[in-house]
Design goal:
Largest sheet: 6 strands, mixed
Structural class: alpha/beta
Helix content: 25-40%
Oligomer: single chain
Number of helices: 9
Distance between the termini: 47 Å
Number of strands: 12
Strand order of the largest sheet: 6-7-8-3-9-10
Radius of gyration: 18 Å
Order of helices and strands: EEEHEEHEHHHEHEHEEHHEE
Strand content: 25-35%
Length: 257
């Protein structure tokens, strides 16, 4: 069971460091069960915005609500039971096995030093199997490749049983098979997902809607076919591109050049 529906609402969210505004006046809503892709060039503010959702960056202005509650007015444990996050820059040098790392996702639902139950073990086993990690579960996490670590961190987020999953470049370090497998898997979870992605075509394949950031502000938001236009790609990404339809999937297909 997950806690809540995972509905997300950002109202006028800004985040500044000193006089530099990294995210400015972002308002959006993500419906329960929807997958929103967060796009934009490097430095557009994607990671910064995601950090305001999972309670790492306190907004300079505006509110972040999950299931109608301001996450910055709720205890960290309340947020941890509802919001799972997979980040780009997780440290990987701690002396834990893959299974230990995946099991850490249950800590949001337990008291300090409370042992794992049969239910916990079943969730951990299922997540390890779903992310194709059986061959690695007794290995030290620090010995894994970048892609293997990424899959382990997604498994950890799953055993957390969040109603909202925040993914910051989840396909980073993954080969094409695991990129497709992971995004299809996340898509089928039935929970609310906000994922920062660089690959425009993968975003169009798997996301219900896309939100494009540029210099910390929303440049466009809507369905992939409404957002991924030659004009927007030229303005935001500074590239010339042809936009067509994928021959098998029927989704938007961007071809640079």
């Amino acid at each position: 069971m997950t806690a809540g529906s995972g509905a997300l609402r950002l109202d006028g969210v800004s985040f500044a460091v000193g006089e530099r505004c990294l995210v400015e006046d972002v308002s959006l809503e993500v419906r329960p069960g929807e997958m929103l892709g967060l796009l934009g060039p490097n430095g557009a503010g994607k990671s910064t915005l995601l950090r305001t959702i999972y309670r790492m960056n306190r907004p300079s202005a505006g509110t972040v609500e999950v299931d109608g509650e301001n996450v910055w007015q709720k205890p960290a444990a309340w947020v941890a039971r509802r919001v799972g996050a997979v980040l780009q820059d997780m440290p990987g040098d701690f002396p834990l096995t893959v299974r230990d790392v995946v099991a850490m996702g249950r800590s949001a639902h337990k008291k300090i030093l409370e042992p794992d139950t049969e239910y916990d073990h079943a969730l951990i086993d299922a997540a390890i199997a779903l992310l194709d990690l059986e061959a690695f579960e007794t290995r030290a996490f620090r010995t894994l490749s970048g892609g293997e670590r990424q899959r382990a961190l997604v498994a950890r987020a799953l055993v957390q049983q969040p109603s909202l999953l925040v993914l910051d470049e989840p396909t980073n370090h993954l080969d094409i098979y695991h990129q497709l497998h992971l995004l299809q898997f996340v898509r089928e979870l039935g929970i609310t997902v906000v994922a920062a992605l660089h690959d425009l075509n993968l975003a169009a394949m798997f996301c219900d809607r896309l939100c494009v950031l540029n210099e910390g502000r929303i440049a466009a938001i809507g369905t992939p076919d409404a957002v991924l236009t030659p004009d927007l790609l030229s303005e935001v990404y500074r590239i010339e591109a042809s936009v067509g339809v994928h021959p098998k999937r029927g989704t938007v297909w961007v071809v640079p050049g």
